[in-house]
Amino acid sequence: MMIYSVIKRPLFTEKGTSLKESGNKLLIEVDMKANKIEIKKAMEELFKVKVEKVATIRQLGKKKRWGKSTGMSSPRKKAVVTLKKGEKLDFIEGV
User: Fold this and answer.
1) C or N: which end of the chain has fewer Cβ atoms within 10 Å?
2) Nearest Cα to Cα of residue 77 among 23, 25, 32
3) Structural domains present in the chain
C-alpha cells in the first residue's frame, strides 16, 4: 500500500487533544485496510518522526435516519500513534 494512501487526516476531537497533551500521542484517521506496520512506516516517512507504538480502532458505521429513509454512515479506522520522547509534530500545533 502506498504511504500517501495510508494516512487520511488527523482527527481533532476532545479525546485526541487530551491524548496529545498528556502522552505525546496523535489521533489520525487511516485507511481501513492499513495495518500497524504500514501506519508506522507512513508516519515516519511522511513526517520524519520516530514512532514508538501504534494502536488501531475500527469504528463501524452507525444507523442513520433521514425522514422515512434509513441508511448507514461509513465505517472508519482510527490510529493512536505514540511518538518517542523528544519527537513533535508542528503542523498540528496551529490548528
Assistant:
1) C
2) 32
3) 3-83 (3.30.70.330)
Mean pLDDT, range 59-72, rounded to an integer: 94
Give yes or no for a contact between 32 and 90, defined as CB atoms under 8 angstroms apart: no
C-alpha 52/C-alpha 49 separation (Å) is 10
Q: What is the dihedral of CA 88, 89, 91, 95, to 10 degrees?
A: -80
pLDDT exceeds 90 at position 92: no
* Contacts within 8 Å (CB) and 24+ apart, 60-69: none
pTM of the model: 0.85
Q: Check if the beta carbon of residue 82 is closer than 8 Å to that of residue 56.
A: no
Residues near 26 by beta carbon (within 8 Å), at least 6 away in sequence: 10, 16, 19, 20, 80, 81, 83, 89, 92
Report the C-alpha gap between 30 and 85 in whole angstroms: 23
